[in-house]
Amino acid sequence: MKTLKTEIIINASAKTVWNILMDFEAYSNWNPFITKILGEPQVNNSIEAHLKNGKGKEMKFKPVVLQNQPQKEFRWKGKLGFGGIFDGEHYFKLESIEEGKCRFIHGENFSGILVKPLLKMVGEDTLAGFNSMNQALKNKAENQK
Length: 145
What we know:
The chain has 145 residues and is an alpha+beta fold. It has a domain of 98 residues: START domain (Alpha-D-Glucose-1,6-Bisphosphate, Chain A, domain 4, 2-Layer Sandwich), CATH 3.30.530.20. It is 28% helix and 42% strand. The protein has 3 helices and 8 strands; from the N terminus they run βααβββββββα. α1 crosses α3. The model has no long low-confidence stretch (mean pLDDT 93).
């Protein structure tokens, strides 16, 4: 398994950040990485996620929601093909640091037989996408006060 992980400190409450994160309809207004999510974020539901990588290429996939703990964690698992080839467990975690401040942890655990070659090709762009989303989320949350 290979993990890509990013973190950012946001000067806003976990509740504020969570509400932005779960407002899928507004993603196109602020999120440069995940431009759209369709579907209900309930555990075992399939959702449709639209991503744009660092080179502007758009991808669409249908992951299954694994976890939805309000103000704590949202996690899904997507597969390339039928599974076991290149699977990704994408997660967003929130940790309250103090009143009005939290840590946003954004990452993905990759598994499957093509992890090494595919991550070698897309790993840097993926991390850049995570970081661009993190910064946009921080800006939006901190300007909502």
